[in-house]
Amino acid sequence: MTLTKHIGALTVLASALLLSQSAQADEDWSNSDWTDSAWYLGGGVGRSKASIDQERLTTALIAGGATSVNLQPHERDTAYKIFVGKQLTRNFALEAGYFDLGQFGFNATSTPAGTLNGNIKLRGFNADLLGELPITDRFSAYGRVGVNYAKADTSFSGDRLFAVTSPNQSERKLNGKVGLGLEYKLTQALAVRGEVERYRVNDAVGNRGDIDLYSLNLVYKFGRPAASAPVAYVAPAVAAPVTAAPAHTEPVPVAAPVAVSEKVSFAAEALFDFDRSVVKPDGKAALDDLLVHLQGMNTEVMVTVGHTDSVGSAAYNKDLSVRRAEAVKAYLVGKGVDAARIYTEGKGESEPVADNQSAEGRAKNRRVTVEVVGTRGAPK
User: Fold this and answer.
1) Shortest CA distance to 105 belongs to which of 159, 161, 54, 171?
2) What does the DSSP 8-state code read for residue 279?
3) This prediction's pTM
4) Strand ranges (E), 205-332
5) How do the domains of the chain map onto residue ranges?
6) What tens digit of pLDDT does each residue of 263-304 get?
7) How far apart are CA 108 and CA 110, in angstroms?
8) What is the DSSP pairing of strand 298-307 with strand 342-348?
9) Which CATH number fits the domain 14-225, given the four candidates 2.60.40.730, 3.30.110.30, 2.40.160.20, 3.40.50.970?
10) What is the pLDDT of residue 184?
């Protein structure tokens, strides 16, 4: 039997749009990228489609003595797949998986009375390279190209087996595969994909062709999109005024250290990967710059405060803001700051500085502030 070579339109994402209405995320989706360590797992179910070569089968049966043939093909079946992937960059990933394309067949009756039934099962493994193109903050289109190693088990039954060379055969072959799809992010950890794929396969009776798979898939992502480069604002130091001594009095005594309060506000994306609380390399560099700026200050107290936008549940946002404040503290302690002098607090979404109704406003609300109170030597 040969298999179909026609890819139809992709329509399975309608249900994903309905599911997304109840999905929550803790931050905005804009300006995101993928970390090199982003792994994901997924699985899907769908419909596979083949094409039975009715003309060839009819010809074989007539050559064997039949005067007429009635053939009923079975060209569609339920299929499924499971896979694991690793995001290499924002736009490329590697993926490997197992697939079961289901089984296809036919039932043929002929005159004079006779029957021939055929069945083929296809399953195997694949390895693909994915290329992704963001369309919106949540939607992405992607394509895939790779190889599949499929096992085809073919069996025939009936009283006209002379039309085939052997009633039971098996074949394993390495062939190519391609695919197109759309991905919709329900949350930062969970996404849904709708896709169509074409598997080139060999059956067990010497034919080579294509099987198309239309599937809906769920993907769980261990990594998160990483945000843009750090942008931090450092407020200028505020020093207490010093009153000059009268010129005619005694020599001016050594001035006491001046109390200083400095506050730094970082965009959350500057310090962390999306939905994560581990300080990333660019964030560490930003905090190192802060420590350099604070050189010469006798630090009394440092307070790290995490903030989020209003997307997602208040409880989750509160927890995320605390974890991020604690992560900043841990890094500063690792750089030699006394842990007893650093206090942490998570405000969650409770103290916005901009309107959460716009992406720009949400970006401003996702922040971590570091306030430093201490003393510097009096200016000369």
Assistant:
1) 54
2) B
3) 0.52
4) 208-221, 225-227, 232-234, 238-239, 258-267, 298-307
5) 14-225, 228-376
6) 778 887 778 776 678 888 888 888 898 888 888 788 888 899
7) 7
8) parallel
9) 2.40.160.20
10) 94
Distance CA 120, CA 166 (A): 13
Amino acid letter, residue 343:
Y
Residues with Cβ < 8 Å from 204, sequence gap 6 or more?
A: 120, 152, 153, 154, 169, 170, 171
Class of domain 228-376: alpha beta
Contact 331, 342 (CB under 8 A): no
CB atoms within 10 A of CB 368: 27
Q: Using one digit for the tens of pLDDT, what is the confidence trace for 72-127?
A: 888 899 999 999 999 888 789 999 999 999 998 888 888 887 788 888 899 999 99
68 vs 197: CA distance, rounded Å: 37
Cis bond upstream, residue 112 (ω within 30): yes
pLDDT digits (tens, 9 = 90+) for 1-49: 443 333 333 333 334 334 443 444 444 443 344 444 479 999 999 999 9
How many other C-beta atoms are found inside a 10 Å radius of the C-beta of residue 37? Answer: 12
